[in-house]
Design a protein that fits this description.
The protein contains nine helices and six strands, in the order αβαβββαβαβααααα. The chain is an alpha+beta fold and about 300 residues long. The strands form two sheets. It has a four-stranded antiparallel beta sheet. The protein has a two-stranded antiparallel sheet with strand order 2-3. Strand 2 and strand 3 form a beta hairpin.
């Protein structure tokens, strides 16, 4: 007597999910990795910009009170870099500048000259927000007009190259990010659409027995939320482990650490996974709901 083969009853929304979760996890991981790289690159550009200095050379025989007054005026300017509320200014007196010149060159000009020709100076470190060419020209003009200032000097060509390179790299990053995000969304969307392909006749059967659109959509959308959340958790966990490993292996990378921003990125992967999964599932379900019976085949 032949044995009856038990057929497994297919439930609404019970399509294979491993492929969907894997695809979403990979896409979210790549997006998160790119975002973390961009954050670290942005921090690096900020550190480079913090190295930009303007040298303010002072008039000779400037009184101590006048130097202190000038120092206070420069300190109060918004373009001066502040770390822990401490303005990043370095004052070098005329005598100290002369000693440094003799030490560096090995030439003692006092043997030839009676007076000290080297000028005292104030080295100003700039706030990165003011490091572009337009701001730099205004800052130099502002400093040059201050009483007691002889000359203002900065490496204009070097700063222009730095700003140009940072701008080019930023545009490349933004372009790659846009392409990557679009490709990831399309990948997830196509994966979910293929996964739902096996449910197309069940969706039509539910329509024929009078099930509402919301009733049919709900199991798929709930599963999409769970898949997006699960994929986001896996992607964020793997990325967090990779970041910690990179910090432990590359010591200098700690200087670029942005803990709060990285935590936001990791949390965003969970939300992004849910949103993309939900929207892709909603779109795919509506596609099959609108298809005619001939199109289903």
């Amino acid at each position: 007597m032949p044995q009856k083969v038990k057929s497994r009853k297919k439930k609404l929304g019970s399509y294979p999910y491993l492929t969907v979760v894997f695809s979403m996890t990979m896409a979210l991981f790549v997006i998160g990795l790119f975002a973390v790289i961009f954050v670290h690159a942005n921090k690096l550009s900020g550190i480079i910009k913090e190295k930009i200095e303007i040298h303010v050379y002072l008039n000779n025989e400037l009184s101590e009170n006048k130097i202190q007054s000038l120092n206070k005026i420069i300190t109060s300017q918004p373009y001066v870099l502040k770390k822990n509320n401490t303005p990043q200014l370095i004052y070098i007196s005329q005598d100290s500048a002369a000693k440094k010149f003799i030490q560096d060159t090995g030439e003692n000009f006092y043997k030839v000259l009676k007076d000290n020709p080297v000028r005292g100076s104030i080295t100003v470190k700039l706030n990165p927000a003011y490091s572009d060419s337009t701001h730099m020209k205004k800052i130099v003009a502002d400093l040059q007009n201050m009483e007691g200032v002889f000359e203002v000097d900065y490496q204009e060509n070097l700063i222009s190259r730095i700003n140009s390179n940072i701008k080019s790299i930023s545009l490349i990053f933004i372009g790659f990010a846009a392409i990557l995000l679009t490709a990831s969304v399309l990948l997830i969307n196509n994966t979910i659409k293929l996964a739902l392909f096996s449910q197309r006749f069940l969706i039509r059967s539910m329509q024929l027995v009078g099930a509402t659109k919301t009733f049919i959509q709900m199991p798929f959308l709930i599963r999409a939320i769970l898949q997006g959340l699960f994929s986001g958790i896996i992607a964020a966990s793997v990325l967090a482990i990779l970041i910690q490993y990179a910090y432990s292996e590359i010591n200098d990378l700690i200087k670029l650490q942005e803990t709060e921003t990285v935590i936001i990125i990791l949390g965003s992967l969970l939300i992004l996974g849910i949103i993309i999964g939900l929207l892709s599932s909603f779109r795919a379900i509506n596609t099959y709901l609108k298809m005619s019976l001939d199109e289903l085949y």
